[in-house]
Amino acid sequence: MGKYHTTGLQLALVASDDSCTCTYTIVEHDFCDSISTANNVSTFQLAVVNPSINSRCTNLMPGQQLCLGTLGKDCTAVHIVQEGDTCNIITSNYGLNASMLVTNNPIINSECTDIYIGQVLCVANAVLASEPLAGLSAPSPASGFGDTPTSR
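Structure (tokenized):
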């Protein structure tokens, strides 16, 4: 299985079938980040619109259909985190501010020390992330970022 880091993430939002804009059928050896990468969908978005996926993405079954986005909350402007990336580098490369990156990717912490290689982040310059429900650990966008690079 590939990596799918969701420390503190509770998959708690449910997308209704009629609001799903695109679906994907799981094939053998898929994992969350590979699905996100191949379909230009952020890791957070995939988790949020598919509450049946467990927090480690270990329960994907071939033939199972996943929703890739919902109407009005479908982020397809994505960045795949590479070795050496920091949130400061990512925000600079896409002309974003820290608040927008955190708002669209609430699974990253306010210091941005928990991004990882292969993670797919929404880099849209508009709010596209669904609101986390109570119990979902979301960082404070006003906190800013450290400059901790990713490494293997």
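The chain has four helices and four strands. The first helix runs from residue 32 to 39.
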